[in-house]
Write a structure and sequence with these properties.
Length: about 400
């Protein structure tokens, strides 16, 4: 069927890929024809719901942290023995999911594009982590972007939970609007302040006030695979979802401790003595690298690749944490010039060389620390994507560890 000419008024619905513009900057011609013909436009997640309407649905959105939070929630619910499937914007296509029926839960990372394409799906638990400017051209500006994110709470009534991070001003405004509408199950999460009847993290301690008791539950500083305040926010959101899903507190705590982390997102690779290797290849921009750099005290930083606009601007305050920077890829000369007077740096060109040089320096220093791949750059100068870059780093670390072990025997 040629959709550019067919009579779309006879179609039940049009299933659109999230990557195809629905509104801005210009609607796709077929999407425009469908709307004019009164044909519903939906996405694959709405189609999943129509096929499995009796299952439970957990949706997670936000500008940052969606993937880790989605994976963490899936891990907790799975460890609790609940039938689940995890995916959406996080890799696994939802139309490949098994039919779970009324006993199952679908845990879905939701992009703003995907939220534009839901119609009748109402999430049993919906999470909005944060909102900062992103995809503005696709949504016609910040207001459109916020409205797309807010759609995750559409239709919620009764016990359906709205879990909102209130540490960014736009998401706090969303929480205020939900409160003004008398949402019956609104849960605030924060890593900056107490969250009455919500979940907060104060000085690293996760505090559960859902029952009005304000109980300190777990010291998140002890969980090496969830470093930094951004991951504490992820943990607070996952805790709230697990609680409203009926998971017992001891089981949530156990699952937080056993969470393996998400590949290439501050992933703990291994330690050699008192030197720890962390793969944060997903940090393709300064904002992501800032979160990683703020999570550790003594850093041997591997950075570089294909630079984004602005270079490393904005990271100045974190440079005292950097013992030495090892620079790779196209951006190395630019980054070396920026680092003058801020942190010592060496151009080493490739990641495997950076791993060896950083380990040799950290071992000579004898103090320990973290060798952190957090490039603040795209990978395309040397690798097809950040996943391949991260796997290359992990292989270089494992090769170094094997050589170090052989040298000791």
């Amino acid at each position: 069927m040629d959709l550019t000419e067919a009579d779309l008024s006879d179609m039940q619905f049009l299933v659109l890929s999230p990557g195809i513009p629905l509104h801005f900057p210009d609607p796709h011609p077929i999407a425009k024809r469908a709307r004019e013909a009164g044909c519903a436009i939906i996405g694959d997640i709405e189609l999943l719901y129509r096929a499995e309407p009796n299952a439970r649905y957990v949706g997670i959105t936000g500008t940052n942290g969606k993937s880790t939070t989605t994976s963490l929630i899936g891990h907790i619910l799975s460890e609790a023995g609940l039938p689940i499937a995890v995916g959406g914007n996080l890799g696994t296509a939802v139309l490949t999911f098994p039919a779970l029926g009324a006993s199952g839960t679908y845990v879905l990372e939701m992009s703003s594009y995907q939220l534009d394409l839901i119609d009748t799906l109402i999430f049993d638990a919906a999470v909005l982590l944060n909102i900062t400017p992103d995809h503005l051209d696709r949504h016609g500006g910040m207001d459109g972007y916020i409205a797309a994110k807010e759609r995750i709470f559409a239709g919620q009534t009764g016990t359906k939970a709205a879990i909102v991070g209130v540490d960014s001003a736009p998401s706090q405004e969303v929480a205020d609007r939900l409160a003004a509408k008398h949402h019956r199950h609104l849960i605030a999460i924060s890593v900056n302040k107490a969250a009455p009847r919500g979940v907060s993290v104060i000085d690293g301690w996760l505090i559960d006030d859902l029952d009005g008791l304000g109980t300190r539950e777990i010291d998140l500083k002890s969980i090496k695979r969830l470093p930094g305040t951004h991951n504490w926010q992820n943990a607070a959101a996952a805790w709230a979802v697990a609680r409203v899903s009926g998971v017992a507190k001891p089981d949530i705590i156990s699952s937080l401790k056993s969470f393996p982390g998400l590949a290439h997102r501050q992933q703990l690779v291994r330690s050699i003595g008192d030197i720890t290797f962390v793969d944060d290849s997903k940090a393709t921009n300064v904002d992501a690298a800032e979160k990683a750099l703020g999570s550790y005290e003594r850093i041997y930083w591997i950075a570089g690749g294909r630079a984004k606009d602005g270079g490393l601007s904005g990271l100045e305050d974190l440079m005292p944490r950097v013992v030495h920077a090892f620079l790779v890829g196209e951006a190395a000369p630019e980054f070396a010039a920026w680092l003058v007077g801020k942190a010592p740096a060496t151009i080493v060109e490739t990641i495997d060389r950076a791993v060896c040089a950083a380990y040799a320096m950290s071992k000579a220093d004898g103090i320990g620390g973290v060798i952190l791949l957090s490039p603040a750059c795209a990978s395309f100068d040397q690798f097809p994507n950040f996943e391949v870059r991260g796997r290359f780093f992990v292989a270089a670390v494992n090769s170094l560890a094997s050589a170090t072990l052989e040298a000791r025997t």
